[in-house]
Design brief:
Largest interface: A-B, 25 and 24 residues
Radius of gyration of chain A: 13 Å
Oligomer: heterodimer
Largest sheet of chain B: 6 strands, mixed
Shape of chain A: globular
Strand content of chain A: over 45%
Distance between the termini of chain B: 41 Å
Order of helices and strands of chain B: EEEEEEEEEEEE
Amino acid sequence: EPEVTQTPSHQVTQMGQEVILRCVPISNHLYFYWYRQILGQKVEFLVSFYNNEISEKSEIFDDQFSVERPDGSNFTLKIRSTKLEDSAMYFCASRMDRGFSYEQYFGPGTRLTVT
Amino acid sequence: AQKVTQAQTEISVVEKEDVTLDCVYETRDTTYYLFWYKQPPSGELVFLIRRNSFDEQNEISGRYSWNFQKSTSSFNFTITASQVVDSAVYFCALSEVQTGANNLFFGTGTRLTVIP
């Protein structure tokens, strides 16, 4: 069964460093998402991406964040200068189309630890 | 604005008991989807069910059942004959169709502990 994959599973970085989190969505999916979950809290929407551009973003997704689909398979989330409060689990998700019946499939997550 | 409320932060039950997890939502959209996800200790998000706003039929899947009531804006989840493997955090989520990208808005989750 096709699945969303994410790498790395755990990333440790120092404050101020840039990180890139990688996701490979399911191959025939067209909508891509990033969510984050601070430890012990709810899952929060960051950004959605469709047709090679951002479709929607939340207020969390400020200028420190960017997304890219550099080739036909990868979908990346870049944090330019990490802060301690960026420590969280980051989930990638993909969806076949914007049709009503299509749910989002989540990857296993990347745990980002900023020290 | 959309909102999902899961008032129960933590619930503990003894194995084989039934347990109901509550979810109340707010939305201005007439067309929306409701979801339940399970997050076991390993951390991944496991999809359990999707319900659209036009379908108020209750659903049963094995030991799981869902009660959707638009009149009270609730989408409650019941586990019958709970098992230790049901121990997890359960999230209710809402997706508003009119926003286009169908982003998911999650509740704060309910941590269920099933005691053997």
